[in-house]
Design goal:
- The complex is a heterodimer of chains A (about 650) and B (about 170).
- Chain A has about 650 residues and is α/β, with parallel strands linked by helices.
- Chain A has 25 helices and 20 strands.
- Chain A has five domains: about 120 residues, Glutaredoxin (3-Layer(aba) Sandwich), CATH 3.40.30; about 200 residues, NADH-ubiquinone oxidoreductase 51kDa subunit (Rossmann fold); about 80 residues, Ubiquitin-like (UB roll); about 90 residues, de novo design (two linked rop proteins) (Up-down Bundle); about 80 residues, Alpha-Beta Plaits, CATH 3.30.70.20.
- In chain A, the strands form six sheets. A five-stranded mixed β-sheet of chain A has the order 2-1-3-4-5, covered by helices on one side.
- In chain A, a hairpin with a 5-residue loop joins strand 12 and strand 13.
- Chain A starts with a helix and ends in a 13-residue tail after the last helix.
- Chain B has about 170 residues and is α+β, with helices and mostly antiparallel strands.
- Chain B folds into two domains: about 80 residues, Arc Repressor Mutant, subunit A; about 80 residues, Glutaredoxin, CATH 3.40.30.
- In chain B, about 50% of the residues lie in helices and about 10% in strands.
- Chain B is built from seven helices and four strands.
- Chain B has a four-stranded mixed β-sheet with strand order 2-1-3-4, with helices on one face.
- Chain B is globular.
- The relative contact order of chain B is 0.12.
- The chains are: A alpha/beta (about 650), B alpha+beta (about 170).
- The interface between A and B is large, with 57 and 42 residues.
- The structure holds flavin mononucleotide and FE2/S2 (inorganic) cluster (FES).
- The site of flavin mononucleotide has 22 residues of chain A, from strand 9 and helix 21.
Chain lengths: ~650, ~170
C-alpha cells in the first residue's frame, strides 16, 4: 500500500469517528489517569451503558496534561461540542450518563470546559482557561485526542507525513532543516540536534545506530512517559527521520522498566508500523531499511547517561566511560551512534511536518520552539504542560499552575532534577530558556519542575538530592562515589543538629572537587542542588547550624512538640495515642509532653481534635509551658504572668 | 518473631519454586540466541517468573551466554530491579521521588512500614509482602504515590495506605 493510500484509509476511519451519530466517551487512561481511578470509571461507564442500553463509542485516550483534575472524561454527543469533565468517579459518571446522554443536561457544574467549535451555556472553552491559555501545544498536540494504540488516528492527524516527505529529500537537506529549526536536545544538556546529527552522519563507518533515550530518571519528571503513552507514533516518526538522515539501519528505544504502560504502547505502535511497512526492510518500497528494538531498563538512574545507557544495551553493568570519543564517533558496539531524548525525537517529527521556519516562530533567541514540563509539588494545578521558551516562571506557576497549594507562600522552584538547582522568588520573572536557567545556577534539564512552598526545608531538599545521587552513583570514580557520600554526611549532620561552623564552606569546597573530578555528568552535576540552595538560602543553613532551628519544621531532630496549655482541654486523646508514652496529664488536666521521651512521631499533632488544635510543632524555641500538668484553665497563672505570649517565647 | 512453622512453610515454598524455576529456565533460554547482549533481558524474564535470581539460574545463564559467572553476578547486583533473594508475593513500592518527597512521601513510607512491620528492602517472614522505596513512577502529578504490581495509587494519605494494604491482603 502506498502512503497516500494509507493516509486515505486513516482519514476515512478518523472522519467516520468524528461524524459518527453515536455519542463518544473519551477517557484519559494514561498511567496518571489510572492512578487517579480511570479504570474504575471505565468499568462504570461500561456497566451504565449496558444497563441503559445506550450505544456509545468508548475511546481510551492519553493524557491531556490536566492531571490535577484526573480522572478526566470527555463526552461528545452528535451535534454538540466536546465537553471535558474532571474529577470523575464511578458514581459521578453514572449520573453524567443519565443527565447528559439520556436527558439533555450537560451538567456545567461538573464540566471543566468545551473543546473545539461550538459552545455550551455555562461551560467555558477549555483552552481559554488560565491553565491552558498560555500553553502552546506542538509536542503534545495529539495527547488526549487520539487513541494511542491506533496508528490510523496518528496518520489521520498528520503522523508520518514528515517522514514520508524526508524520504524524498537528501539527508544533508534534512540535517540542514533541523539545524535551521534551532532545536536543542531535550534530554538535559541542550546540545544542538542538527549539529549532533551532522557529526554522526559524517563519522566514517557503514554501520550506525540511533537511540531514543526514554530512561527518564529525573525523579519528579514524567514528560516522556506521558508522551510515549499518549502519542508514541510522534517519537517513532522522529526516529525514522533521524535514521534516514544519519544513515542508521538499526535503532533502540531504551525505556525504563518503571513505565510498563509506555513499554506496552510502544510495542503496539511498533507492530502497527510493521503492518503498514513503515519499518523494516525497504520501507514503503524505498531503498531505506530500518529496524528498531525496545530495550527495557533495569532500574539505574545513571543509565540515562548516554555512555552508560549504551553499556546497558550491550548487556553490561551500566557504567559511564569518559568522553571523547563521543558516541557520534564511537558509541554502541564501537559504532557511530546518535542518541536523543524522547521529546527531541517528537519535536523532529513536528519540524519536518511543518518546516523549520514555522518552528523558529516560537521561543527565544537561542531556545527555539516549545518545551514540556512536569509541573508538580506544592502547586494547585499539577500536570504536564507545554509552553514556548521565554515564558516566565511566574506565568507557569501562578497562571498555569494556579499558585501555591493552600494559599501558602512560594519558596523555590526546582528544575533539572538531581543535576539542577532550586531558584528562589527573585527568579520568578526570569524567562524560562536554556541560558537564563544556566546563568541562574540551575539548568533546563529534561523538564521536571517541582514547586516548593514555605513548608519545604532547603537543607532537607539538598540532602534529599544528595542521598539520591549517592545511592545512584555507579561507583566507578572516586570523586562521585566518595565525594557525594562526604557531602551527604555533612548535610545529615546539619539536618540533625550536629552542624558546625565552617560546614557550609566545607560543603562548597567538596562540591567543587566533585564537580571537577567526576567522570560523568552524574558526579559533575551532583553538587548543583547543594550549591544553589547554599547560594540562595544560606540563612536557612545558618539557622540549622548556629541556632539548631529548621524554620520549615521539617528536620525532625530540630523540632519539638508542645501542648498549648491555653488550648488543651485535657481530653486524653493524645495521651492515649502516644506510642512513646511521653504525654502526662489526665482528664481535664492540661497535658505535658516529656521532651526526653518524645520520639517526634507527630501522632499527638494528628490526633488532637481540630477544635482544640492544642499541639504545636516548634523549632529553635521552647514556648513557655508549665513543667507539670495543671488543671485546665489554670495554665496561664502557672507559667508566670499574663504577659507571656504563646507560642513564640524564646528559650 | 516468625513461628517455626511459618519458616518451614517458606522453605518448602522456596524448594518448590526452585524446581519450577529449573523447568522454566530451559523454556526461557530456548527463546534466546545466546548473545552476550541478551543477558539483561534473560535475567529480567527469569526474575519475572521466579520473583528473584536464584544462584543456580545465574550459573546456567552464564554457561548459556558464554559469560563468566562473575559478569552475570555483576550485572545482577548492579541494577536495582534484580533481587538475589526471594521477595514477597505482593511488592509494595512507595515512591521516594522529588514530587512525592515534597508532598509527604516520608509519612506514606512510614505508614507502610508500620502496617507491614518491615523496612524498605525487607520482606515479611511469610513472604507475603515486600516493601520497596523507589524513585519515581512518573505519576508525580498525583503525588504521593504507591505502586502494587502494576497498579499505581495516587494522592495517598496514611489512612489510604492502610485501606489499600488491607485490600491487598484480602485478595490472597
Ligand atoms: C546522570 C545522567 C542521567 C541522564 N538521564 C537522562 C535521561 O533520563 N533521559 C535523557 O534523555 N537524557 C538523560 N541524560 C542525558 C544523556 O546523557 C544525553 O545527553 C541525552 O540523552 C541526549 O539527548 P538530547 O540531545 O536529545 O538531549 C542524562 C545524563 C546524565 C549525566
Ligand atoms: S516523584 Fe513520585 S511518582 Fe514521580
Amino acid at each position: 500500500m502506498s502512503f497516500a493510500e494509507i493516509q486515505k484509509r486513516a482519514m476515512a476511519e478518523w472522519e467516520m469517528l468524528q461524524y459518527s451519530q453515536t455519542p463518544r466517551i473519551l477517557v484519559g487512561a494514561a498511567t496518571c489517569g489510572r492512578a487517579a481511578g480511570a479504570e474504575a470509571v471505565l468499568r462504570a461507564i461500561d456497566r451504565e451503558l449496558k444497563q441503559r442500553n445506550i450505544d456509545a463509542i468508548i475511546v481510551q485516550v492519553g493524557c491531556i496534561g490536566l492531571c490535577y483534575a484526573e480522572p478526566l472524561v470527555d463526552i461528545i454527543k452528535p451535534g454538540h461540542p466536546r465537553i471535558c469533565y474532571g474529577n470523575i468517579t464511578p458514581e459521578i459518571v453514572a449520573q453524567l450518563i443519565e443527565d447528559y446522554l439520556v436527558k439533555d443536561n450537560p451538567r456545567p457544574d461538573l464540566a471543566l470546559g468545551t473543546i473545539g467549535d461550538g459552545a455550551v451555556d455555562g461551560i467555558p472553552h477549555l483552552f481559554d482557561l488560565p491553565v491552558l491559555k498560555s500553553q502552546l501545544r506542538i509536542i503534545l498536540r495529539h495527547c488526549g485526542f487520539i487513541d494511542p494504540t491506533n496508528i490510523m488516528h496518528s496518520i489521520a492527524n498528520g503522523g508520518y507525513a514528515g517522514f514520508v516527505k524526508t524520504l524524498g529529500m537528501k539527508p544533508e537537506e534534512i540535517i540542514e532543516e533541523i539545524r535551521r529549526s534551532g532545536l536543542r536536545g531535550r534530554g538535559g544538556a541542550g546540545f544542538p540536534t542538527g549539529q549532533k546529527w551532522d557529526l554522526c552522519r559524517r563519522s566514517p563507518g557503514e554501520e550506525k545506530y540511533i537511540i531514543c533515550n526514554a530512561d527518564e530518571g529525573d525523579p519528579g519528571a514524567f514528560m516522556n512517559r506521558s508522551l510515549l503513552e499518549s502519542d508514541p507514533h510522534s517519537v517513532l516518526e522522529g526516529m525514522l527521520i533521524g535514521a534516514y538522515a544519519i544513515g542508521a539501519r538499526e535503532g533502540y528505544i531504551y525505556c525504563r522498566a518503571e513505565y510498563p504502560l509506555a513499554l506496552e504502547r510502544l510495542r503496539i505502535a511498533l507492530r502497527q508500523l510493521e503492518e503498514y511497512q513503515l519499518i523494516g526492510d525497504s520501507i514503503l518500497d524505498s531503498d531505506f531499511s530500518f529496524h528498531l528494538k525496545i530495550k527495557e531498563g533495569a532500574g539505574a538512574f545513571v543509565c540515562g547517561e548516554e555512555t552508560a545507557l549504551m553499556a546497558s544495551i550491550e548487556g553490561k553493568r551500566g557504567m559511564p566511560r569518559s568522553r571523547p570519543p563521543f558516541p557520534a564517533v564511537s558509541g554502541l558496539w564501537g559504532k557511530p551512534t546518535n542518541i536523543n531524548n524522547v521529546e527531541t525525537w517528537a519535536s523532529i517529527a513536528a519540524i519536518m511536518q511543518r518546516g523549520a521556519t514555522w518552528y523558529t516562530g516560537y521561543g527565544t533567541g537561542k531556545s527555539k520552539g516549545t518545551k514540556t514540563f512536569s509541573l508538580v509539588g506544592k502547586v494547585e494545578r499539577t500536570g504536564l504542560i507545554e509552553v514556548p521558551f521565554g515564558i516566565t516562571m511566574r506565568q507557569i506557576i501562578y497562571e498555569i499552575g494556579g499558585g501555591i497549594l493552600e494559599g501558602k507562600r512560594f519558596k523555590a522552584v526546582q528544575t533539572g532534577g538531581p543535576s539542577g538547582g532550586c531558584l528562589p522568588s527573585d527568579f520568578l520573572d526570569t524567562p524560562v530558556d536554556y541560558d537564563s536557567l544556566t546563568s541562574a545556577g540551575s539548568i533546563m534539564g529534561s523538564g521536571g519542575m517541582i514547586v516548593m512552598d514555605e513548608a519545604t526545608c532547603m537543607v532537607d531538599i539538598a540532602r534529599f538530592f544528595l542521598s539520591f545521587v549517592q545511592l545512584e552513583s555507579c561507583g566507578k570514580c572516586i570523586p562521585c562515589r566518595w565525594g557525594t557520600q562526604q557531602m551527604l554526611d555533612i548535610l545529615e549532620d546539619i539536618a540533625n543538629g550536629r552542624g558546625r561552623p565552617g560546614d557550609i564552606e566545607l560543603l562548597q569546597e567538596l562540591a567543587e572537587s566533585v564537580k571537577d573530578g567526576s567522570l560523568c555528568g552524574l558526579g559533575q552535576t551532583a553538587p548543583n542542588p547543594v550549591l544553589t540552595s547554599i547560594r540562595y538560602f544560606r540563612d536557612e543553613y545558618k539557622a540549622h547550624i548556629e541556632e539548631k532551628r529548621c524554620s520549615a519544621l521539617v528536620c525532625n531532630a530540630l523540632v519539638s512538640y508542645y501542648i498549648d496549655p491555653d488550648k488543651c482541654q485535657g481530653c486524653v486523646i493524645c495521651l492515649r495515642s502516644c506510642p512513646a508514652g511521653a504525654i502526662r496529664g489526665g482528664k481535664r488536666v492540661v497535658h505535658v509532653i516529656d521532651q526526653d521521651k518524645c520520639t517526634k512521631c507527630g501522632t499527638c499533632l494528628n490526633v488532637c481534635p481540630p477544635r482544640f488544635a492544642a499541639v504545636v510543632k516548634a523549632s529553635g524555641e521552647r514556648p513557655a509551658i508549665p513543667e507539670e500538668p495543671v488543671a485546665v484553665g489554670l495554665a496561664s497563672n502557672n507559667r508566670g504572668g499574663q504577659q507571656q505570649v504563646w507560642p513564640l517565647q524564646a528559650k | 518473631m516468625a513461628s517455626s512453622s511459618v519458616v518451614q512453610g517458606a522453605q518448602a515454598l522456596l524448594q518448590e519454586q526452585e524446581e519450577t524455576i529449573e523447568e522454566r529456565l530451559n523454556e526461557i533460554l530456548s527463546s534466546y540466541q545466546g548473545k552476550k547482549e541478551e543477558l539483561i533481558p534473560v535475567l529480567q524474564q527469569v526474575q519475572q517468573v521466579s520473583g528473584y535470581l536464584p544462584e543456580p539460574a545465574m550459573k546456567r545463564i552464564a554457561k548459556f551466554l558464554k559469560l563468566p559467572e562473575s559478569t552475570v553476578f555483576g550485572v545482577g547486583t548492579f541494577y536495582a530491579q534484580f533481587k538475589l533473594v526471594p521477595s514477597g508475593r505482593n511488592i509494595i513500592r512507595v515512591c521516594r521521588g522529588t514530587a512525592c518527597h515534597v508532598r509527604g512521601a516520608t509519612c506514606i513510607l512510614g505508614e507502610a512500614e508500620k502496617q507491614l512491620g518491615i523496612k524498605p528492602g525487607e520482606s515479611t517472614s511469610d513472604l507475603e509482602y515486600s516493601l520497596e522505596a523507589t524513585a519515581c513512577f512518573g505519576s508525580c502529578a498525583l503525588a504521593p504515590v504507591m505502586v502494587i504490581s502494576n497498579s499505581v495509587y495516587g494522592r495517598m494519605t496514611p489512612a489510604r495506605v492502610k485501606e489499600v494494604l488491607a485490600n491487598v491482603g484480602g485478595e490472597k
